[in-house]
Structure formats: structure tokens, C-alpha cells
């Protein structure tokens, strides 16, 4: 079994009352694949049924499956005993959320992610950021890092205030402390971690992915 098309006739465990349950039915019906869903109320029950052979497959968000696989009990063969199929049957973007109505906080959270993407695009890392801050002549990099940039003729160089209600060097603080998006990804969920997730469509738009940050101006 290597692809969702191989699930014909399979019993598939799924968490009840979730969009995953709906996605499973929608996608396999679209592919004209007969299957038997086994909807269960919590992950522990799903894992118990999966181990006992009550279901042939288990569907969930790919990041969740990666986490489950990474911590699969050694008594059941460890992570190598289970595999995640290559096919993707739904689009379920995941990201940070904020409480509705607090636009300033939402902007701060969103731009924390966006500046990490811009840093990756510009080649800024937690390792080289201090050197670039001192030596770069790229106005986009200087603006992002809160370094004074020359304005109109006669004006004193000054850092650009993005209007987020944050210090003008907030992007520098984020990147220097946790890294750009690639550094964070590789450190937390990348191929060399227990989760072992490839970037895939989570790559930058410049690398064929879908991640894109607007200009920081």
C-alpha cells in the first residue's frame, strides 16, 4: 500500500466529528474507492484499534500523523513499523491564530511569521544576521532588520517604522533569537527530526512552494 488509490476495500480509522472525516469520504468517493470508515472519538482509541488490526489505515493531518509515527512504541516496532502514504487528499492549512477583534496583536503574530519568510528569501540567518546588519548595502535587508536607512537628501538616516506598534528592530530580534523560517522548520519538524517532514509546498515561492511574504515597507 503506497497511495490512497490502494485503499480500496480498506477499513480506515478517523477521528469522529472532524473535517478529516468529511475529507476522507469526499476524496475517496470522488476516486470511486469503496472503503469502510471506523470513526472513533479520540486518538488513543484510534491507535488501539490500529494496533489491533481493526483498521487497515489511519487518516489525520499529515503533521499529526508524522508526530504519531515519530513516537510509535518500540514494543510495536517503532517508527519503521508504520508509514505515511505519499498522496495528499485535502488542503488543510495550519498556522497561528489570534482572538478576533485584537487587530494589533494579530498583525504582530502574522508579521512574526512573515519576517521569518522574508529572512529566508533574503538569505538572512541567525548566524549571519549581525554581520549583514553591519555590512549589507541592500535597502530591503536594512529595512527589515531595523537598521537606519538614508531617506530624502538632507535627512538623517533612520530605521523604517512598519507601523505595527512594535520596536523598529523587532524583525532582528525574532530572527536573531529563533532563526529564519527554514531554520525553525528544520529544527522542529524537518527531515532530521522525529517528525521527518519534507518542506514540500511549504517551501518559498522562489523554490516552487506556496509561501510568500509581502514587502516589509
Strand content: 5-15%
The main sheet orders its strands as: 2-1-3
Q: Tell how many strands the DSSP assignment holds.
A: 3
Number of helices: 8
* Rg from alpha-carbon coordinates: 23 Å
How far apart are the termini? 49 Å
Order of helices and strands: EHEHEHHHHHH
The gross shape turns out to be: elongated
Outline the low-pLDDT stretches. Answer: none
Helix content: 25-40%
Largest β-sheet summary = 3 strands, parallel
How confident overall, as mean pLDDT?
Answer: 90
Question: What does this entry look like structurally?
Answer:
The structure is a single chain. By secondary structure, this protein is mostly helical. It has two domains: 4-81, Periplasmic binding protein-like II (D-Maltodextrin-Binding Protein, domain 2, 3-Layer(aba) Sandwich); 103-207, no CATH class. It has eight helices and three strands; from the N terminus they run βαβαβαααααα. The protein has helices at 19-30, 43-52, 62-70, 103-122, 129-135, 139-144, 170-178, 181-188; strands spanning 11-15, 36-40, 57-58. Strands 2-1-3 form a three-stranded parallel sheet, sandwiched between helices. Helix 4 crosses helix 7 (170-178). The longest helix has 20 residues, at 103-122. The radius of gyration is 23 Å and the shape is elongated. The N and C termini lie far apart (49 Å). The mean pLDDT is 90.
Amino acid at each position: 500500500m503506497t497511495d490512497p488509490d490502494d485503499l480500496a476495500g480498506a477499513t480506515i480509522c478517523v477521528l469522529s466529528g472532524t473535517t478529516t472525516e468529511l475529507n476522507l469520504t469526499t476524496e475517496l468517493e470522488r476516486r470511486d474507492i469503496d472503503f469502510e470508515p471506523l470513526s472513533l472519538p479520540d486518538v488513543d482509541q484510534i491507535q488501539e484499534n490500529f494496533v489491533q488490526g481493526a483498521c487497515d489505515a489511519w487518516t489525520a493531518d499529515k503533521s499529526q500523523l508524522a508526530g504519531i509515527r515519530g513516537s510509535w512504541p518500540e514494543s510495536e516496532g517503532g517508527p519503521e513499523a508504520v508509514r505515511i502514504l505519499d498522496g495528499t487528499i485535502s488542503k488543510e492549512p495550519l498556522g497561528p491564530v489570534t482572538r478576533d477583534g485584537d487587530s494589533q496583536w494579530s498583525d504582530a503574530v502574522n508579521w512574526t511569521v512573515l519576517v521569518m519568510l522574508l529572512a529566508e528569501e533574503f538569505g538572512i540567518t541567525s548566524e549571519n544576521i549581525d554581520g549583514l546588519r553591519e555590512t549589507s548595502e541592500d535597502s530591503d535587508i536594512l529595512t527589515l532588520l531595523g537598521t537606519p536607512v538614508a531617506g530624502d537628501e538632507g535627512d538623517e538616516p533612520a530605521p523604517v517604522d512598519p507601523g505595527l506598534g512594535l520596536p523598529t528592530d523587532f524583525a532582528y530580534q525574532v530572527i536573531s533569537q529563533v532563526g529564519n523560517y527554514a531554520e525553525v522548520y528544520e529544527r522542529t519538524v524537518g527531515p532530521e527530526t522525529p517528525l521527518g517532514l519534507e518542506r514540500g509546498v511549504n517551501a518559498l515561492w522562489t523554490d516552487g512552494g506556496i509561501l510568500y511574504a509581502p514587502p516589509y515597507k
